[in-house]
Amino acid sequence: GAGVSQSPSNKVTEKGKDVELRCDPISGHTALYWYRQSLGQGLEFLIYFQGNSAPDKSGLPSDRFSAERTGGSVSTLTIQRTQQEDSAVYLCASSPIAGGPVGELFFGEGSRLTVL
Amino acid sequence: AQTVTQSQPEMSVQEAETVTLSCTYDTSESDYYLFWYKQPPSRQMILVIRQEAYKQQNATENRFSVNFQKAAKSFSLKISDSQLGDAAMYFCAYRGNYGGATNKLIFGTGTLLAVQP
Asked: B102 and A98: CB-CB below 8 Å?
């Protein structure tokens, strides 16, 4: 597709279970970001990938959160042993050039995670 | 660290009227970008307008314009001739220009705009 694709759109899980969220960026975009949007709050940066460079994991809230990006394209965000406070919308965004002058990020529609 | 503040959690405007959404930010850098994103109920964030800090001229995109006051670190969004389709959550965002480092967007908490027919 032409835009950033995320799956699943909605996920309901039980506390303690592991979940995987998938992001398929726009073809050719080298930069990929994960953000978390909690109710009543702004977007919280989680992790950033740029090409083959080491990812910037500075926003991950705990070691239960991890992400990988295979082949410089698809990314998976994994949350282990989910907690109720993990409930949020997880947004993925891609950008053609991370440090370039454009600055615009292209977002997917997000994955809404509900932890019961 | 950079911060972005949106002090208006909710705003309302009559159709065809003008509304201004406020945003302030804090940074010690001189070169950066500012953005307004719109998030409709579909959840997909859409870029509304972008301002480069080195440009003194305020950016405009059709009915959308900004009032960028660099010294005051203020970046407000004006929507003219409001339409029902403008109803959404609006986020102000900051991005540094570090050239090669993580250029993540730092977002405010958003302003929910309602448009009354």
From this structure: yes
- For residues A23 and A96, which has the higher predicted lDDT (pLDDT)? A23
List chain B residues with CB under 8 Å of A42: 4, 6, 91, 107-110
Q: CA-nearest residue of chain B to A93?
A: B45
pLDDT tens-digit map of A65-96: 999 998 878 999 999 999 999 999 999 999 88
Tell me if A41 and B91 make a contact (CB, 8 A cut-off): no
Contacts of A35 in chain B (CB under 8 A): 107
Residue type at B90 in one-letter notation: Y
B40 upstream amide cis, omega within 30 of 0: no
Cα dihedral sign for A110, A114, B3, B9? positive
B92: which 2 tokens? 């102000």
What are the beta bridge partners of residue B113? Answer: B11, B88
Q: Is a pLDDT exceeding 60 seen at residue A99?
A: no
